[in-house]
Amino acid sequence: MENVIKNPIGYARTSTKEQDINLQINLLKDEGIPSDRIFYDIGVSGSVPAERRQGYKQLMTFTKNNPVDAIYCFEISRLGRTAMETLVLVQELEKSGIKVISLSPSESWSKNVDPLFRDLLIHMLAWVANMERKVLKERVKAGVQEYRDKNGKWGPRKREPNQAKVEKMLSQGMKLAEVAREMKIPQSTLYKYYHIWQDEKRIEYVEGVE
Q: In angstroms, rounded to a whole number, what is the distance separating the alpha carbons of residues 37 and 34?
């Protein structure tokens, strides 16, 4: 791993359309990153899965098809949806030789490009991610048990919306409210099942990484 960054790219994201994305973009340009190597999402909440963010998808596609040795961002949390997702993403990028560098003063440690430090960082991230998985699994288990205590068996529900159809519409950029209207079901019903599906995915994830 070299100490000199030769092929950086940048990522910026604002949670609301009222926030000025140019503030982040200008900071990335100040680091010498050209406009055509800066990817961004405007008005996209961190709760939106990474795979549904257009700018983020373009960023990851670029890293696969072009030489990239560093991703600059305003804050590391801009990348992932959750702390766990962010940890795993940064760990995977660092392992592949792509440094993740934050422009936030509170994350100035990320600017250290010394190979020994980056190697230590990978191991630290792996340890933190493992601890996060354990905490998450305990929380999910507790949530499932609470659900069972209140509602009985954890499993298929009556009158449950078609999950595959819902997820396909969401992957096409539709919002939950728009999907509810399209499928002619109450928003409250769709939101309820959407959160249940997310919990189930978290259960599968934490069980799959053990």
A: 6
Q: What are phi and psi of 71, to 5 degrees?
A: -115, 120
Q: What integer best gives the mean pLDDT of the chain?
A: 81
Q: Tell me: the pLDDT tens digits for 100-117? A: 999 999 888 888 888 888
Q: How far apart are CA 15 and CA 68, in angstroms?
A: 26
The DSSP string of 105-162 is GGGGGGG---HHHHHHHHHHHHHHHHHHHHHHHHHHHHHHHHHHHHHSS-S--TT---
* CATH of segment(s) 155-208: 1.10.10
- pLDDT of 116 reads 86
Same fold, 8-127 and 155-208: no
Backbone angles phi, psi at 101, to 5 degrees: -120, 125
CATH code given to domain 8-127: 3.40.50.1390
d(CA 99, CA 95): 9
Task: Tell me, yes or no, if the pTM score tops 0.85.
Answer: no
Domain ranges, ordered by start, for the chain: 8-127, 155-208
Q: Report the largest interatomic distance among the alpha carbons of the chain, rounded to a whole angstrom.
A: 58
| 125, HSE (Cβ side, Cα atoms, 13 Å) | 23
Confidence check: pLDDT of 141 > 90: no
